[in-house]
């Protein structure tokens, strides 16, 4: 007894398919071309498993392919739907690949039909290669996110009613096809440091929450709130719940009042750079990096810069420069790179449960309830 995954073509409604019922005599069969066997193997399985080594065909009157397995012959019409679909493409390309004098057009509908996402990815990469190698131009229709993400925007067209749009970017077309349902929550923040902080809080304090979220750094509180307002009108994120998390330095600013109807709250400090600036005379914080450093942290230029302006209010630029210099100081006298240093800073800031208590409560309420 042999078991195999049957194709949809095995159904009775396909009995009228030309050649389907001609595969009775397997004698006088011929080996499939190396091109078909190797490409089918790589697209379906992603590696040379030898599964299609026994692929052969008979003429009846057109070529019908079959596999020899354990003394049984399995017709192409009994292949899985994905295997049959890819084989059908390969049979045509095999007849055209040596005729590269003219550009030939190949139109494929629903190219992702019955294919695993990995196989979709491999097939699409093959189409790009065949275009270059065999002068074949492919026009394909698809709803597959895998293929849409692989395709270059200038080569992607979106057809809606009688309108054709190009270029098309993955996020836009995804929102059209799937309305971003795969994101349950959208979190808007001012910069990448705030993004890292919020992400770390969720990962460490809300491990049991099962939903999809996206954190976007927009740049400056005004840009964040304008983006929020635009989303209210255009629904970039469809049904996903949206919140703005702003730096604490804007908390009491009158400029934020026009946006009071937009769901928002604040970081538990002015901003990451300012918080680190304030911690540069905190031994508990500095000791984190002392063990990695070949020099005494008190000798760091950044620490000296901080002491020089201790008796006056540091400007935003001074804070940013000292924060940057602090990371450089550690990097120069340790094996830590700037990214690793920043990760340790974020980890330390997230560990202050007392200071972060209200922030964590606000964030968890949004994540859970929207």
Automatic annotation (TrEMBL):
Q: Which residues form the ATPase AAA-type core domain?
A: 46-149
Q: Which InterPro entries match?
A: ATPase_AAA_core, Bact_Antivir_Def_Nuclease, P-loop_NTPase
Source domain of life: Bacteria
Q: Which GO terms describe its molecular function?
A: ATP binding; ATP hydrolysis activity
Q: Which Pfam families match?
A: AAA_21
Question: What is this protein identified as?
Answer: ATPase AAA-type core domain-containing protein
What organism is recorded for this protein? Campylobacter estrildidarum
Ranked from the top, the taxonomy reads: Bacteria, Pseudomonadati, Campylobacterota, Epsilonproteobacteria, Campylobacterales
């Amino acid at each position: 007894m042999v078991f195999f995954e049957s194709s949809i073509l095995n159904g009775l409604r396909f009995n009228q398919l030309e050649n389907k019922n001609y595969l009775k005599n397997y004698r006088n069969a011929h080996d499939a071309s190396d091109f078909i066997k190797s490409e089918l193997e790589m697209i379906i399985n992603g590696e040379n498993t030898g599964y299609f080594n026994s692929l052969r065909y008979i003429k009846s009157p057109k070529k019908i392919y079959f596999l020899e397995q354990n003394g049984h012959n399995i017709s192409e019409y009994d292949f899985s739907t994905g295997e049959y679909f890819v084989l059908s493409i390969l049979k045509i390309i095999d007849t055209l690949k040596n005729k590269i004098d003219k550009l030939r057009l190949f139109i494929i509908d629903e190219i992702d039909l019955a294919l695993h996402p990995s196989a979709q990815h491999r097939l699409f990469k093959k189409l790009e290669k065949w275009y270059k190698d065999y002068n074949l131009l492919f026009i394909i229709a698809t709803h597959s996110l895998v293929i849409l993400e692989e395709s270059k925007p200038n080569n992607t067209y979106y057809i809606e009613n009688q309108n054709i749009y190009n270029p098309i970017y993955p996020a836009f077309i995804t929102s059209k096809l799937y309305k971003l349902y795969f994101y349950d929550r959208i979190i808007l923040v001012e910069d990448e440091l705030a993004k890292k902080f919020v992400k770390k809080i969720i990962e460490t304090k809300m491990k049991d929450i099962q939903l999809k979220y996206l954190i976007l750094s927009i740049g400056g509180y005004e840009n964040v709130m304008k983006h929020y307002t635009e989303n209210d009108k255009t629904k970039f994120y469809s049904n996903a719940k949206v919140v703005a998390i702003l730096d604490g330095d804007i908390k009491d600013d009158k400029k934020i009042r026009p946006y009071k109807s937009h769901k928002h709250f604040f970081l538990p400090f002015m901003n990451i750079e300012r918080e680190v600036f304030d911690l540069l005379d905190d031994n508990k914080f500095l000791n984190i990096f002392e063990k990695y450093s070949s020099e005494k942290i008190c000798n760091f230029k950044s620490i000296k810069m901080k002491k020089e302006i201790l008796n006056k209010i540091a400007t935003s630029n001074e804070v940013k420069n000292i924060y940057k210099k602090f990371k450089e100081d550690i990097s120069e006298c340790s094996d830590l790179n700037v990214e690793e240093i920043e990760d340790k800073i974020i980890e330390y800031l997230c560990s202050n449960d007392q200071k972060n208590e209200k922030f964590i409560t606000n964030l968890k309420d949004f994540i859970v309830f929207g």
